[in-house]
Amino acid sequence: MEMLIAARVVQGAFAVLLLPQVMSTIQAALKEPAKTRLLSYYAAIGGLSAAVGQLLGGVIVWADLGGLGWRLIFLINLPLGVVAALGIRAWVPETRADDPDSTDIGGTLLFGAAILGLLIPLSVGRQAGWPAWAWAWALCVGSAAAFVALRFYESRIEISGRAPLIPPSFLAISTMRRGLLVLGSGFLVFGGYLFAFALAMQEGNSMSALESGMSMAPMALGQFLSAMRAPQIIKRYGIRSIQIGGLAQATGIAAVMLPVILFWPYSEFYHVAAGMFLIGIGNGLYVPSTYRTILSTIPDHKIGLGSGLITTVQQSALAVGVAALGAVFMGISASASMGAGFLGVGTIFLAVALSYTVLGARVADRRGRTEGLGARI
Known about the structure:
Blueprint: H1 2-29, H2 34-63, H3 71-75, H4 77-91, H5 105-124, H6 132-159, H7 168-171, H8 174-204, H9 209-214, H10 217-237, H11 241-263, H12 273-295, H13 303-335, H14 338-359
């Protein structure tokens, strides 16, 4: 287990180096309308990959090829990594900065400490039998202290002329703050929802790994189709695409929760298909619209920093979402049932999605039009 965790840390570290370069390259190498189109394709492929990964993982575990079981899930990354490396070398244009920024090692360590301060109590506390007050104390003291230290440290780094991990000047832009809040909250609840869904369906509802994976397929299809149409929708509705996406998500979540209420613990994967499809539709609309809104506030010479910040928020939110909503799920499941635990997580997801229908149009600065979007706020 220790070796697996260490290998995953290395894998995650290199993934963090790769992901920001995608948005940076799109932003630096393209002009409108190609830029918005490619950001939508990026969101489509990302959502499709996440959902197909769940489906493929279920197929691999079910097939048990060569007796490797779940281990093959990790081995399959090797050929995919080779293909990606060759593709980057062949087709991705060079966008290297003339004066590259230095790496903010101190900010990275402080941010990592702050996130670990959240993840460790949430992930380990229940298993270790910590009382609730110990969780709250650990979260408040450890994580809050690291975030406060990070805030002061990043301000000093930026004042000195170096490039911070999380630039305070970026966070001073209201559109940036609101966009990151939408993106972060969305990925937080989405990560927790996927965790709770897979566990509830397999452990509580007796779906096989294959059936659980198949139930993700409609979501992948919905996100792919809507993200491919997102450029046209964004052009027509502008920032209100976030509201449309939130409404689709909320409707989908309710449609998934209903058969759980009616049929638990005998829900079938086709019972949740329509709801999962609508969740995917919502993801495919709000994610590229939010990406575009955030990136439009960043100067071209700082696009690398901005892309890194987006990736940092996105990936951290996914991790915290799994830990935080996983704790909610396990807590409710322990006292009631896994169906009830899933409904608890779904209710939180529903509340966040509904908030986009109310607040989505306020993401951009109310004083004017967001660059590249068609609606005045």
